[in-house]
From TrEMBL:
This is Propionate 3-nitronate monooxygenase. PANTHER family: NITRONATE MONOOXYGENASE-RELATED. GO terms for biological process: 'de novo' pyrimidine nucleobase biosynthetic process; response to toxic substance. It comes from Nocardia yunnanensis. Keywords: Detoxification, Flavoprotein, FMN, Monooxygenase, Oxidoreductase. It comes from the Bacteria. Its cofactor is FMN. InterPro entries: Aldolase_TIM, Dihydroorotate_DH_CS, NMO. It catalyses: 3 propionate 3-nitronate + 3 O2 + H2O = 3 3-oxopropanoate + 2 nitrate + nitrite + H2O2 + 3 H(+). Belongs to the nitronate monooxygenase family. NMO class I subfamily. It holds the Pfam family NMO.
């Protein structure tokens, strides 16, 4: 398996919408981890160009992450929300698309990469079989034991266990507002539950920014740690200046649907606070709010842009990605050795 061949159990989270770049993915892979190219929001042709650019920078394994398409939302669910926003902000068309799922799948079958992962749902057993037949491993992002069992039944090779602490969109198969009343599982709890429920490797994601946190998820049974926010301040990342600045502060995070119509974690700001009851309608609201978010980024206005980040964002440091991987690896090793030493001393 790809995980067995890595020099360090560190996986780059696929951060669609800006932070993900071929340079960042390649730097993580070159340092011994597993880089990821985020395919979300990209047409298949652009994804192909980014895969080519990544290959030009590294001969090592890397992965590509796809957004599994959701069902279209009925217009009456979100029309009043978009109308309300339009009275104050520039808004675009609240459209639906499949994020070019079928074309991207065909591209990855014709031009395979080491790993293909999915978020927002699980590919069908037939789709997974096609990807595996061309030599790709298939990883599926899950947030519950039920999702994990579904993914394993479909043929997933690895599960990415996304805990509640993670920044950006929740990777749930269905964004059910009824689940808002249920506490989402944290990373450590989810990894333990999955280890007891399924027999495939687990990659832990959510709130992991330090080497000690990498050690922590390895200690409870994860095969590797996936980090996103930790890499957002790296020079290779395409993170916008307004988000780079915000991540370095200590603003708390919260979950919101205000920007995209799908539950996501970001730094608390005025827009999120002003729209606590945004409807479930992804990707329609995502497209509608595109102009207002673009305007806020251009103006450096942190109150009107989605500042996706995990709960431990203030611990992220500004280092080249390769150096960060090596630092995290050394710190994780030291943390595990300290923990083992302390345990021995208690007996």
């Amino acid at each position: 398996m790809v995980l067995d061949e890595l020099g360090t159990p560190i996986v780059l989270a696929p951060m669609a919408g800006g932070p993900s770049t071929p340079e960042l993915a390649a730097a993580v892979s070159e340092a011994g981890g597993l880089g990821f190219v985020a395919a979300g929001y990209l047409p298949a042709r652009e994804l192909g160009a980014r895969i080519k650019a990544t290959r030009a920078l590294t001969a090592r394994a890397f992965g590509v992450n796809l957004f599994y398409p959701s069902e279209p939302s009925p217009t009456d669910r979100f029309s009043s929300y978009i109308e309300e926003l339009g009275r104050e902000f520039p808004v675009g068309e609240a459209k639906y698309d499949s994020d070019d799922w079928a074309a991207k799948l065909e591209l990855l079958i014709a031009d395979p990469v080491a790993v293909v992962s999915s978020t927002f749902g699980c590919p069908s057993a037939a789709e997974i079989a096609r990807l595996r037949a061309v030599g790709s491993e298939v990883w599926v992002t899950v947030t519950t034991v039920a999702e994990a069992r579904q993914a394993v039944a479909a043929g997933a090779d690895v599960l990415v266990a996304q805990g509640a602490e993670a920044g950006g969109h929740r990777g749930t198969f269905a964004d059910d507002p009824g689940e808002d009343l249920v506490d989402p599982l944290g990373t450590l709890a989810l990894v333990q539950l999955l280890r007891a429920a399924v027999d495939v490797p687990i990659v832990a994601a959510g709130g992991i920014v330090s080497g000690a946190a990498v050690a922590g998820v390895l200690a409870v049974g994860a095969a590797a740690a996936q980090l996103g926010t930790a890499f957002m301040r790296c020079p290779e990342a395409g993170t916008s200046p307004v988000i780079r600045k915000a991540i370095a502060g200590d603003t708390p995070t919260m979950l919101t649907r205000a920007f995209t119509g799908r539950r996501a974690r970001g730094l608390r700001n005025r827009f999120m606070e002003d729209h606590p009851d945004a409807p479930v309608a992804y990707p329609e609201i995502h497209y509608a709010t595109g102009p207002l978010r673009a305007a806020a980024r251009a103006a450096g206005n942190a109150d009107e842009v989605n500042l996706w980040a995990g709960q431990a964002h203030s611990l992220a440091v500004e280092l080249p990605a390769g150096e960060l991987v090596r630092t995290l690896s050394a710190d994780a090793k030291n943390a595990l050795e300290r923990a083992l030493s302390l345990r021995i001393q208690t007996y």
